[in-house]
Design goal:
Elements: E1 2-6, E2 14-17, H1 18-25, E3 38-46, E4 49-55, E5 63-64, E6 69-70, H2 73-85, E7 89-96, H3 106-118, E8 126-131, E9 140-145, E10 150-152, E11 154-155
Parallel strand pairs: 2-4, 7-8
Antiparallel strand pairs: 1-2, 1-11, 3-4, 3-7, 5-6, 8-9, 9-10
The structure holds zinc ion.
Zinc ion (ZN) binds at residues 95, 97, 105, 108, 130.
Length: 156
């Protein structure tokens, strides 16, 4: 099963399979003690579409709080290099929120723009996926961001 996310029904789409969704949804913060989790998103490009091939899990050295997630940047860079050898391209990040319907925080907004600016890449935009505590599809927010704008994608 695959799901398409985009700005408009027939425009470019971000395609996420249920296998990849499960890799993120298994970290839903369903209990009061569950900490934020997150990782990186890797994809291949086909025509105008972006197929997400992997959502990597949190690492033991990430700094995880109930309302914060700070990944180990050095490990992230290594992961990006290793994935590139398997033709999987870094396209953005994902993380969880302890809220039913997830939405980006002011810090998320800052970090996605910074991530876009600081990375060496040829992408026109970066993905940010946030997983809340509701079941799919209400429990996911898929954003596309560049230096200035951030857009919430719809599932078509
Ligand atoms: Zn967040």
């Amino acid at each position: 099963m695959i799901y398409r996310f985009g700005i408009e029904p027939n425009g470019p789409a971000i395609i996420i399979s249920d296998v990849v969704l499960e890799k993120m949804f298994r970290y839903q913060q369903l209990r009061d003690s569950d900490l934020e989790a997150g990782g990186q998103l890797f994809a291949r490009f086909e025509g105008q579409d972006t197929y997400i091939l992997d959502a990597t899990p949190p690492k033991p050295t990430d700094k995880r709080g109930r309302h914060s997630f700070r990944p180990n940047k050095w490990l992230q860079k290594l992961e990006i290099r290793a994935k590139r050898l398997c033709a999987q391209h870094f396209v953005g990040d994902w993380h969880t929120h302890p809220e039913l319907i997830p939405s980006k925080s002011p810090i998320d907004r800052e970090s996605i723009h910074a991530c876009f600016r600081e990375s060496r890449h040829q992408l026109k935009a970066f993905l940010m996926v946030i997983v809340g505590t509701e079941a799919f599809p209400n429990g996911i927010a898929v954003y596309l961001a560049d230096n200035d704008n951030i857009k919430l994608l719809k599932q078509w």
